[in-house]
Amino acid sequence: MSKLKPETRNKLRTVSVATVCTALFKRGFRNQFIQDVRPLSQDTGTMVGEAFTLRYIPAREDLNPLSVFQDRAHPQRKAVEDCPPDAVMVIDSRKNPRAASAGGILVSRLMKRGVAGVVTDGGFRDSPEIAKLPFPAYHNRPAAPTNLTLHQAVDINVPIGCGDVAVWPGDVVLGDGEGVVVIPAHLADEVAEEAVEMTAFEDFVAEEVMKGRSILGLYPATEEQTKIDFAAWRKARNR
User: What is the pLDDT along the chain (239 residues), one digit of tens a residue?
Assistant: First the structure.
């Protein structure tokens, strides 16, 4: 059962990965942004969900013929069928995009099962088709060869590394058009709350800057007049 509160999920849908990175930095977390991973499409909206993980190790040729997929307990296939609705599947491909972490059929299956999105620090095959799906998917770059050529799936829902970030099952994964950040599960509620507040202030600042106002004293808010102006802005917009 999901531990992510519905109100926390909804708050995170309204904020950016960049804002959450700053909120985490305030708490001493400098390495929560998954490196070298980008969305296949900019049109799928914000991705939020708890991490459900799959771990690959380097493939050994005698253990990875195509026939392994006939086994219903094969970890890659089992992970696709076991990943809970509203979770995000996060795949540790050792930052190796030379072979696919998954392809269009498996990603489509995740989507139809109600999964919130998928992230790999490797690559996807069938990437043009995946990019057309109404489903958040993040990878390093396209990778046509089947996963079996380089990757052997060995573990499901264990701590992994993805793009140099430690990901624990149940951590909260947030993705937008810029990339993916991993929020430690115990911080999700407070980070979401602060990120909503930060977003409101940054929206105010952006409007002021577009009016020609200097950032000095505005961002960060070191002048009392800025705080007064922001309070009036929030009241006018019911934020």
Answer: 579 999 999 999 999 999 999 999 999 999 999 999 999 999 999 999 999 999 999 999 999 999 999 999 999 999 999 999 999 999 999 999 999 999 999 999 999 999 999 999 999 999 999 999 999 999 999 999 999 999 999 999 999 999 999 999 999 999 999 999 999 999 999 999 999 999 999 999 999 999 999 999 999 999 999 999 999 999 999 88
In terms of Cβ atoms closer than 10 Å to its own Cβ (0-12, 13-18, 19+), residue 224 is exposed
- Tokens 């909206």 locate to 45
Nearest to 119 by CA among 104, 134, 107, 132: 107
Say how many CA atoms lie within 13 Å of 183 toward its Cβ: 34
Residue with tokens 């499409």: 41
Contact 172, 51 (CB under 8 A): yes
Q: How many CB atoms lie within 10 A of CB 155?
A: 15
| Token pair listed for 100 | 């696919």
Structure tokens, 16: 């950016």
Q: How many CB atoms lie within 10 A of CB 14?
A: 13
Q: How far apart are CA 82 and CA 173, in angstroms?
A: 18
Closest by CA position to 155, among listed 43, 70, 57, 226: 57
Give CA separation, 45 vs 12, 53, 123, 146, 203, in Å.
12, 22, 20, 28, 19
Q: Give how far Cα 191 sits from Cα of 10, 38, 124, 136, 217, Å.
A: 13, 23, 31, 22, 25
